[in-house]
């Protein structure tokens, strides 16, 4: 039967991109009644330096965002990666299955080391996708909702599953299916329509954070880069207008209307008309989440309790799968 796994790095505060591309869809999957396992991948976060106190805070804040967005920690499993050791253990096995060449071809690795000394990057950053494959396959998850930027990592997860099965002559790991759906699979920066909105962008103006208040959201959208033309009359007309297309996509994802419907409503409108409507929509969608996050963050012990409970339930699924992996690979288990 289907099982969903997905994760978010607590390497910074979550953005509108994470919300529309991931979190909002995680909630939809939970509501569809599919078994859902969601993880704050703290071990992925430390592939680049993280201040320990901030990492702890960001992990709790990430958990609060999941719950505030509608993840019910009773119906879904919600935990942080490092509390379930199966992730690290299976990642080691996958480090021995995956090839150096596969990892070198990952665009995220290439982007993160572009123009820098790759020799100074952590070994963990290079091996990152093997840990991601372990996250998913430790649960025999079959469906993984993600944004567009994770597509290549999921293809690699499939390659690892296939190679493991071939090398050991078993039909053990399932071939996972990426779920990259909706109008906001790639939300772009508010400052540059050709770059992804990212928690690690040095400019805070480039993104909307889930912790931003209404005034901040309004100011950021008002200042968002656009071209001087009014909105086009057809979807085709957005083709060479990355900033306009991005704002329309965000509007579509927030309102649940199709891009076509948004375009037909705003055909010929100036951004001076469109942007205030987008602000209203964004504030209406995000402010209840921000408020609920703030409420939850007042009780960090309760968040930690939820993560611990989730980790217990995650471990109960992953541990027997990992024991089978040890058996398949010829590791003696005698205690
Ligand atoms: P991360 O933490 O960068 O992002 C979390 C999720 O948010 C999506 N996302 C976006 N979607 C649309 N527009 C954007 N601008 C945008 N930015 C981020 C991402 O695609 C992702 O779905 N490697 C993963 C975390 C991970 C994972 C996993 C995911 C670790 N193990 C196992 C799925 C399954 C990452 O860095 O996501």
TrEMBL record:
Where is the short sequence motif 'HIGH' region located? Answer: 10-18
Query: What EC number(s) are associated with this protein in UniProt?
Result: 6.1.1.2
Q: Which reaction does it catalyse?
A: tRNA(Trp) + L-tryptophan + ATP = L-tryptophyl-tRNA(Trp) + AMP + diphosphate + H(+)
Say what the protein does. Catalyzes the attachment of tryptophan to tRNA(Trp).
Q: Which organism is it from?
A: Rhodobacter calidifons
Protein's name according to its UniProt entry: Tryptophan--tRNA ligase
A Pfam family that the UniProt record links to this protein: tRNA-synt_1b
Q: Gene symbol?
A: trpS
Among the GO molecular function terms of this UniProt record, one is: tryptophan-tRNA ligase activity
The UniProt entry, under NCBIfam families, shows: trpS (TIGR00233)
Query: Which family does the UniProt entry place this protein in?
Result: Belongs to the class-I aminoacyl-tRNA synthetase family.
Q: What class of enzyme is it?
A: ligase
**Binding-site residues, L-tryptophan:** 135
SUBUNIT field: Homodimer.
Q: Carries keyword Translocase?
A: no
